[in-house]
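My main concern about presentation is that the manuscript never shows what a single data entry looks like. Each protein is reduced to its one-letter sequence and a matching series of backbone shape codes. For the editor and my fellow referees, an illustration may be useful. For illustration, here is how one protein appears when written out as sequence plus structure tokens:
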Amino acid sequence: MPILSAANWGGQGLHPRGNFEGFNQAASDQKWLEVHGLEHWTHFYTDYGLGLQKRFFGHFLKGEDTRWEKQPKVLLQVRHPGERFVERHESEWPLGRTRWTRFYLNFADQTLGSEPANAKENISYKGFGDGITFISPPLEEETEITGPSAAKLFVSSETQDADIFLVLRVFSPDMKEVSFRGALDPQTPVAQGWLRASHRKLDPRRSLPHRPYHTHDERQPLSPGEAYELDVEIWPTCIVVPAGYRIALSVRGKDYVYPGGEAQALPNMGRPFTGVGPFRHEDPRDRPASVFGGKVTLHSGPGREAYVIIPIIPLK
């Protein structure tokens, strides 16, 4: 069955899960992946997207000569700050030349670095709080990040569970956050990831360092105060980060909130957007304070190296 999977970099929280996983797991040899930015209707529902769809359907359904046989397996609109996109063709996903690079969380100065801590450290935040942001030094050269990311964390909680919200972020030299026009929310961060600690169980046959797969087939409560190893997935993203900018990882107890203020939601979605569109995690029936509101502590040190794996793409 021929497949054309069209994804949006800014659709985190809903569609990209099916786009990227569907493309990778589909058994068909006739499969293509396209990834664009902005709202869906800006690119995929206008000339660029309609042209791609007509070539795909014309080839497979109407027998037309659309030159689809020359279509690259992966078509990326590579993002740059300022809503600038550069089209690039690739042959696989994730990209085969990816350098999976570890950035270690240093608790003493809340930085991201190239070396792990050499002594035991811990740092705490409120279970429903803004958490902690770890920031890299300014990048020495332009750096492309394209693909999925993942974090290795060692976490304890005062209660029997904890919800971990991760946000991969980029800041300009004057420390203004780089956000994007997402599929819904106009202030979407670079990438996000989520994990409920009691769902930390991994599928060892499918998990990779940069892509943990969780089974979600049993709940494993925490013993208060005991540290547990968590592998937290961060959904795929793409951005070319200019030299002098900084990469950051926020570990939070609640949804990301864009620091520049709220944005008007679409008419049928009610409340203003704050950076995650309509995909909020705040219902007390799902997150009772007695279970998720306690203090959460991150641990690091020898044998407990806390880090985030980021997909760095070298030039072709």
User: Anything to note?
Assistant: The two ends are 31 Å apart (CA to CA). The chain has a mean pLDDT of 95. Helices lie at 16-25, 40-43, 47-61, 289-292. The longest strand covers residues 143-157.
